[in-house]
Amino acid sequence: MRVSKHALRQHIFGTEIVMLFLLDVMKASWTLLLQSGIFILFGIIIGGFIKVFLRPATVARHLGKGKVLPVIKAALFGIPIPLCSCGVLPAAAALKKQGANTGATAAFLVATPESGVDSISITLSLLDPIMTVARPLAAFFTAVVTGIAENLFVSENDPNVPRIIDKSCSVDNCCDGNDCPPKDHANHHSLGEKLYAGLRFAFTDLWSDLAGWFLIGLLLGGVITVLVPEELLGHYLGGGLLSMLVMLMLGIPLYICATASTPIAAALILKGVSPGAALVFLLAGPATNITSLSVLVGLLGRKATAIYLISLSVCTVLSGLLLDRVYAGLGISARAAAGQATELVPHWMAVSGAVIILALSLPVVFRRVRSFAARIRSRRTGTGAEAQPPRIIQTREITSSCPAPST
Q1: For 44-57, what is each residue's pLDDT tens digit?
Q2: CA atoms within 13 Å, Cβ hemisphere of 345
Q3: To the nearest 10°, the Cα dihedral for 218, 224, 225, 227?
Q4: Rounded CA gap, 112 and 88, in Å?
Q5: Less crowded by CB within 10 Å, the N or C end of the chain?
């Protein structure tokens, strides 16, 4: 079959357009990664240390009785912890099982995915100091209002149900902590061992949960930067109640973590979206998604989930409207201020951070792609999990006795 010269030229021209578009997207995504890489490293390291040094039993002791104070404590506990809207669900379920009331659980569910040390650091790198401060403050405000509303309008379950406190060692689960004297249990490991365990958790478990979504967020931010005309978003989402509602409707069903949502919000602001509308997306996107809402019904109940959604929506929109007023009152343009914090970072450090993030992320993405491809092949060939040989996972046994304290 012969191909005409005209059809061949059209094919070549179309291929060139696609390649140029992909190249522009990669360049824009690389710029976002350069601006954020070193800040993400800092954030995930702090997140790893929080996991080791902040034990669930300590948190649960403060979240039981009371309608207001446990809610405030839960919001404060949740803000620095880097978990997404699905990852926070088992943590919240554990807190509720350990005695946290419904309001405190709801506050933790709101504050934790909306903020985190990793997302706060990347907000400073890609946006500006005002948004960096406004994001955790708005998350705290939304979490507290939601939690108090839950405690006021939702009756608690039987208070006589015994609490199950997780006392296991937070470093390596070397014992369950039930038969250990508190002083011995606190000194199972040296400070060096705890720091090493925190770093190991940060660069393996924690980042493997975030890496795929962060790279997707970078690519979407690049696509927005290349494709979307500035006048379009600036005209329709440049501020006001309608802009907030549009971003709220976009964010609620979307599954995206706080870290991944930040480069998207940065790209939107650079295209003319108001900082308040971007804040609504930064809060509503990570806090909810279709999957987590179904789990929330089982965890909190239908009434509590409805209160959760209403409180979250109202507080998020109010926070966005207030933030636009703050920028207008200070006479600051969010577009002009975006990314200025990265000017303080030397270029070699920015490149090093970006390369390290890629080195940590790509193996995670490749493993997940291979796993997904294997599942697709097994479905096509009619073999399922039953046909696969069982995996033997070696884990360290959790004992009830204390190991000797480190010296």
Answers
A1: 787 778 777 766 66
A2: 21
A3: 140
A4: 7
A5: N
Using a pLDDT cut of 70, give the percent of the chain over it. 71
Q: CA 184 to CA 169: how far, in whole Å?
A: 11
Does the global pTM surpass 0.85? Answer: no
What are the pLDDT digits (tens) for 274-320? 899 999 989 988 887 666 677 677 777 888 889 999 999 999 999 99
Question: pLDDT tens digits for 180-209?
Answer: 666 666 667 778 888 888 888 888 877 887
Measured at the alpha carbon of residue 320, what is the angle toward residues 232 and 332, in degrees to the nearest 5? Answer: 75
Distance between CA 248 and CA 142 in Å, rounded? 14
Domain positions in the chain are: 12-159+169-375
CA distance 227 to 235: 16
What torsion do the CA atoms of 264, 269, 271, 272 make, to the nearest 10 degrees? 150
User: CA 107 to CA 146: how far, in whole Å?
Assistant: 6
Which tokens hold the place of 203? 């660069």
CA end-to-end span of the chain? 80
φ and ψ at residue 383, rounded to 5 degrees = -100, 135
The alpha carbon of 297 is separated from its chain's Cα centroid by a whole number of angstroms, namely: 21
What gap in Å lies between CA 380 and CA 353, rounded to an integer?
41
Best mean pLDDT range from 86-95, 141-150, 221-230, 337-346 = 141-150
Q: Cα–Cα distance between 318 and 389 in angstroms, integer?
A: 54
